[in-house]
Amino acid sequence: MSKKTIFLAGLWREHPNLRQLLGMCPTLAITTSVLNGFAMGTAVLFVLVFSSFMVALIKRLIPHQVRIAVYTIIIATFVTIADITLKAFSPQISRALGPYVPLIVVNCIILGRAEAFASRNSVGNSVLDALGMSLGFMWGLMAIGAVREILGRGTIFGFRLGIIHFRPWIIMLLPAGAFFVLGFVIAFMNFLDRQKRLKT
Amino acid sequence: MKYFRIVLVLLVTSLISAFCLSLVSSLAKARIENNEKTAIERAIYVVAPAAKKVEEKLTAGKTIYKLYDGQGNLIGYAFLAKGYGYQGEIKIICGLDKNLEKILGIEIIASSETPGLGAHINDSWFKKQFRGIKVLPRIVYSKRKSRQDNEIQAISGATISSRSVVEILNKEITKVRKILQP
Hints:
The structure holds two protein chains of two kinds. By secondary structure, chain A is an all-alpha fold.
């Protein structure tokens, strides 16, 4: 596998939340605005890159039987660091994301990448994979967040769009709206893929 | 030998992790506490714009902020009231006048009510209703345009959230009155 293939896998072909359907909890819960998606994506980027780096670095030292326990400790450490940092430097974002930052510990994407990729590949490739996956996760959250924010609040990045006669669809901010948008985004991705396949 | 290695790896990993976390936590602790304090203080000045000086006082296990105007006269008290709403915790800063009879104002500093329905408790029209209402015998809510001097109008479609705010306030005000007026 070339470096480019590894990096690009997470952005489309093996997209973590829109293809593998991992990390559904934050995908559905916090995507009520683009900025929330961005903040959550950044927190996951930090945790995933550092966890993958650490796991790839020490993979030969860990006895097979306790590898999951060790990965969990590593992940939990970085998640807690991210949580404390957010609380200290941007309390507003921390409040908006609520319990979903500490919950990154149990996000399948992170443990999944540690077990499926970082524990079998070099440090460099693992970091590339982590970057691709978390950037993919981030754009997934931001795309869903954008649709929900525009339709549910009539704003984008917090700025009023000023469409006249538009009454925000409150359902888009509720859990049901999250499922609708997730379905449509996945369908749209599949549609684009099929168009591409038909052309070739 | 095999087991020894397992135990050793787990021990070392946990130790390194604990060390890193306590380091980060001790570096950030002051900042986090400061953030919480500024959030409360900012809310106090919104609740009582006339206040120029705030004095923190711990009485009977409850932090009560004494509010003074520019001349140093006591104008009232402010405190934190919290409880559960429709979905999660609601935290309110409430200001009372110096006779403990009327509300100066309220500010909601944390809530997670339903967007579009209960989240309207954060709207200024809802919070403004509390300004100057009587707390005795208790605050009540209704669905009509409020008339009585201890009554507020509930948000239509979000009675539970409105009721929660009123109940949280009633409970805490009773407690604070007992502390300040034995």
